[in-house]
Amino acid sequence: MRKITTLYLSALLLSACSMDRLPLVYHMDIQQGNILTQDMVDQLEPGMNRRQVEFLLGSPVLQSAFHPDRWDYVYTLKPNAGDPVRRRLTLHFQGDQLRRIEGNLVPDAGNTHQG
């Protein structure tokens, strides 16, 4: 009986380690990547040069050696409470000029900045 109780308690303690959120334990908000807001993205316009885009959004998180005319911005926020936030923005350049904007955070449809 003692072995069964010990085994049961051990299994219970180990299962608690796999819980994502323990009650009464504070978890910090975790932010990664470039902070992207709709206001920042709304200021993007086709024809802007790379330097202007970098001034608005900061340096891109990803710059591929295979796609030098593509900049990727990624932002994730895992808050203490609530659902995680994931924002992705891909900018395509032709030479030094911004040509196309893609992602789940694009200029507002009311703006005519996307071309």
Please state the overall shape, judged from the principal axes of the Cα atoms.
elongated
Uncertain ranges = none
Return the CATH architecture of the domain at 28-103. Answer: 2-Layer Sandwich
For the largest beta-sheet, the strand count, sense and barrel status come to: 5 strands, antiparallel
CATH class division of the domain at 28-103:
Alpha Beta
Percent of residues in beta strands? 25-35%
Number of continuous helical runs: 3
CATH topology term of the domain at 28-103 = Beta-lactamase Inhibitory Protein, Chain:B, domain 1
Structural class: alpha+beta
Helix content bin: 25-40%
Rg on CA atoms, Å: 22 Å
Order of helices and strands: HEHHEEEE
Mean pLDDT: 84
Our measurement of the CA-to-CA distance between the termini, rounded to an integer number of angstroms, reads 74 Å
Write down how many β-strands occur, each being a DSSP E stretch of 2 or more residues.
5
